[in-house]
Amino acid sequence: MSITEQVLVQQLERLQLRYFLQHYPDLVAQAARESWTHGHFLEQLVAGEAARRDEARVARRVKAAHLPGLKTLDGFDWSWPKKINRTQVQHLFRLEFLPQQGNVILLGGVGVGKTHLAIALAHTACLQGHAVLFTRAVDIVTALAAAQATGGLKRELARLLKPTLLVIDELGYLPIDKFGADGLFQVISQRYERGSTVITTNRAFKQWPEIFNNDSTLTSALLDRLLHHAESVVIEGRSYRMRDQTDA
């Protein structure tokens, strides 16, 4: 490597132009073979670096979202649910509810695809540049309780309020005590018209007081905020995970 090339590599490392570093020699050779102009050569380098940085940003957002796996809308089995509004769901993936700080409620029994769609929505939001956090309802309660014990409740609430999209999975699957009910109320109510929330639940809205420690007043106030700008997607059918047993 010549002195000039060494200096170039050092400067590219300093500027963190990793695509330049990796592809510069090959592109130089290709430019010579194909008689590229200087402008076209530079364009190829810059386009590659921009694409690399975009991919890195998406990867960071997906990691920060704590998705429990990768799901996509293309991978959803539309033939399985007995009832689902496919047009409504596909429209949600345009993410028009995000700039409106709208919410999405996915209602249905166990194994009908609610979590699949919630993960896919979260992943799509990551791809489009939005900050996302995926968590289960019980994990929110546990985290808030731990934060309360260590004096960090305000900081934990701020973490849950910060994302453009917060996905709360499995609301209603486990009982919640008064502290948990109050904590979830604070999260959902403070996100009202500040950020979007996607919730998956196996409980109809009329049963939600049972989720929130039988506090009808709190539940009514929460639903009033949550449903003001919301779309509810009802999914009916048998559990997809039990299909082999039920078909046997």
Automatic annotation (TrEMBL):
Transmembrane spans: none
Presence of keyword ATP-binding: yes
Pfam families per record: IstB_IS21
Coiled coil residues, start to end: none
Domain (AAA+ ATPase) ranges: 100-236
Keywords attached to this entry: ATP-binding, Nucleotide-binding
SUPFAM superfamilies: P-loop containing nucleoside triphosphate hydrolases (SSF52540)
Molecular function in Gene Ontology: ATP binding
Superkingdom field: Bacteria
Family per similarity comment: Belongs to the IS21/IS1162 putative ATP-binding protein family.
PANTHER family (alphabetical): ATP-BINDING PROTEIN RV3427C IN INSERTION SEQUENCE-RELATED (PTHR30050:SF4), CHROMOSOMAL REPLICATION INITIATOR PROTEIN DNAA (PTHR30050)
Protein name: ATP-binding protein
